[in-house]
Amino acid sequence: xxxxxxxxxxxxxxxxxxxxxxxxxxxxxxxxxxxxxxxxxxxxxxxxxxxxxxxxxxxxxxxxxxxxxxxxxxxxxxxxxxxxxxxxxxxxxxxxxxxxxxxxxxxxxxxxxxxxxxxxxxxxxxxxxxxxxxxxxxxxxxxxxxxxxxxxxxxxx
Length: 157
Ligand SMILES: [Zn+2]
Known about the structure:
Layout: E1 2-3, E2 6-9, E3 17-18, E4 21-22, E5 25-32, E6 38-39, E7 61-67, E8 70-71, E9 76-81, E10 91-99, E11 106-114, E12 119-125, E13 132-139, H1 140-144
Antiparallel strand pairs: 1-8, 2-7, 3-4, 5-6, 5-7, 9-10, 10-11, 11-12, 12-13
The structure holds zinc ion.
Zinc ion binds next to loops.
């Protein structure tokens, strides 16, 4: 995993959001846009409520927000095994990074669909802590069983 701290100069609050995930903000700083004096102002304060800079009287402001950005390479590996003569894969595996909807965190997800022994396995772990977030092993028929007994819709391409 690659991590880096980066400083991002922003103008609007909305940039804190990246693909629906709120970015963790380390610090917000407001400085005078002319002389650079650090000011004890809220970034969200409306410009008409501003007081002139105590040093130079300027109404211009520069906002500096430090965002803790974690840069990772997301990858996914998929494997499908088919018998000679084609047909539905008898085994499918997927291993890789998966954005967990509940927490907005990237997790390691592995799943194996084995049609030979009719088992479905899924394991989701937190790459930071190594904790198992979700683990399940169940008969494929039980996992897929959403109206279609053969599970044709699941993972067909
Ligand atoms: Zn100033």
